[in-house]
Amino acid sequence: MGDPVGVAGAVLLLIGAAFSAIVWPAFLRRIAADPRSRDAAGKPTRFLTVHVTLIATALVIAVAQAVVGIWWLASR
To answer: What are the beta bridge partners of residue 38?
Structure first.
């Protein structure tokens, strides 16, 4: 397989990606249900926009982590 440090790093990347894939969508559901997410007219507020942006960024990073972790394990 590969060196133990590289394998450990790849496994940590995959664990981090899995954690993000589980935690952030649940957080998004809570944010969407929060009354601060919509104004009186039902339009999204900055509160919702900022949190959706943060969550989307975290999920993109999680995908990158998963790709690198799988690539590392597969290439060794």
So the answer is: 44
> How far is the C-alpha of 16 from the C-alpha of 22, rounded, in Å?
10
CB 10 within 8 A of CB 69: yes
pLDDT tens per residue across span 23-64: 999 999 999 999 999 999 999 999 999 999 999 999 999 999
Q: Are 10 and 73 in contact (CB under 8 A)?
A: yes
Q: How far, rounded to the nearest angstrom, does the alpha carbon of residue 68 sit from its chain's CA centroid?
A: 15
Yes or no: say if 66 and 17 are a contact pair by the CB < 8 Å rule. Answer: yes
Given the structure tokens 């999680």, which residue do they identify?
62
44 phi and psi, to 5 degrees?
-65, 140
Q: Which amino acid is at 65?
A: Q
Locate 31 and state its tokens: 């944010």
Q: CA of 70: how far to CAs of 5, 6, 21, 36, 67, in Å?
A: 15, 12, 15, 39, 5
